[in-house]
Amino acid sequence: MVFITSLSIHTKQENACKIVQKLLNHSGVHKLVINKSGETALDTAEKNKLSDIAGILKEHGVQCAKFIKQQPTNSAREIKQTVSDTKNGVHHQLEHTHQTRKRVQGIANQLNKLHVEGLNNAINSTTVVAVLIATIAFAAIFNVPGQYADSPNDISP
Prior knowledge:
This protein is an all-alpha fold. The protein has five helices and no strands. The protein has helices at 6-10, 17-25, 41-47, 51-59, 75-142.
């Protein structure tokens, strides 16, 4: 963790022994915090040659930064890698979606062509049937059932 705390601020001041003592007695104070410079409150007190404050800090279990295991600060790199992976995944998905859309449009065009061909075949078949029916109707009009009589005597009543 990297924080600037009131404890690390007061370890820079010469007459801050009472403030540091009260802060350390408070239960909400983090004693193992490392600041942006990579120092704990104890490191800051020793750097500023404040042996009284350094002694108080040691009594309360504050350690030097070199003895505290720091978590690697690769979180920015991990986030960058995660963002990059996500970006590549999204890009791949968009390409796949585009290719799928092209395929679906091709299939839709083929279906439309087949539909049009089917309708044309139905229209042609219907037209042929209508022509045949019309031909038979006209033939029936001009061909009266029965035969022609050769003489008027052969006509049956």
